[in-house]
UniProtKB/TrEMBL annotation:
A Pfam family the protein falls into: PX
Gene name per UniProt: Snx3
Protein name: SNX3 protein
GO biological process: endocytic recycling; late endosome to Golgi transport; protein transport; regulation of protein metabolic process; regulation of protein transport
Keywords: Acetylation, Lipid-binding, Phosphoprotein, Protein transport, Transport
Length: 141
C-alpha cells in the first residue's frame, strides 16, 4: 500500500450567536484537517461569521482565475420584524446556513487554483483575518 492520497477535510459546525440587538451575529467553527503541503497547519480551528465568507468570496473573485460558487443568500426576509420565529437566529435557519457554508468552502478550497491564494489560507487557518493583507500566491516550500 502506498501512502494515503492528499486530503483536505473542512467541517463547518458549532454555531454560536453572540451580541445583542443590531450587533448580534452568528459565528461558525471552521475545522480543517489536511496533509496538503501548501497548508502550513495540518489541523486548525477558527471562527468565522457570514461576512467573513463574503470577504473570502470577493477576494477570490478579484484575485484568482477561479469561478467562485455563490454563497447561500443573505436571508433578507428573515430579518424582517414581527416574524413568528427568531429570523436569522432561528435554529433551523442556522443549521441550513451552516450546511450551505460548508458546501461552499469545500468547493472553493478543493479547487487547485484557490489553494494557492493567500486569502483562502488566512480564512481557513489564521485566528484573525488581516483584511489589509497584500494578495499573493502561496508557493510550495
Amino acid at each position: 500500500y502506498g501512502p494515503p492520497s492528499n486530503f483536505l477535510e473542512i467541517d463547518v459546525g458549532n454555531p454560536q450567536t453572540v451580541g445583542v440587538g443590531r450587533g448580534r451575529f452568528t459565528t461558525y467553527e471552521i475545522r480543517v484537517k489536511t496533509n496538503l503541503p501548501i497548508f502550513k497547519l495540518k489541523e486548525s480551528t477558527v471562527r468565522r461569521r457570514y461576512s467573513d465568507f463574503e470577504w473570502l468570496r470577493n477576494e477570490l473573485e478579484r484575485e484568482s482565475k477561479v469561478v467562485v460558487p455563490p454563497l447561500p443568500g443573505k436571508a433578507l426576509l428573515r430579518q424582517l420584524p414581527f416574524r413568528g420565529d427568531d429570523g436569522i437566529f432561528d435554529d433551523s435557519f442556522i443549521e441550513e446556513r451552516k450546511q450551505a457554508l460548508e458546501q461552499f468552502i469545500n468547493k472553493v478550497a478543493g479547487h487547485p487554483l484557490a489553494q494557492n491564494e493567500r486569502c483562502l489560507h488566512m480564512f481557513l487557518q489564521d485566528e484573525v483575518i488581516d483584511k489589509n493583507y497584500t494578495p499573493s500566491k502561496i508557493r510550495h516550500t
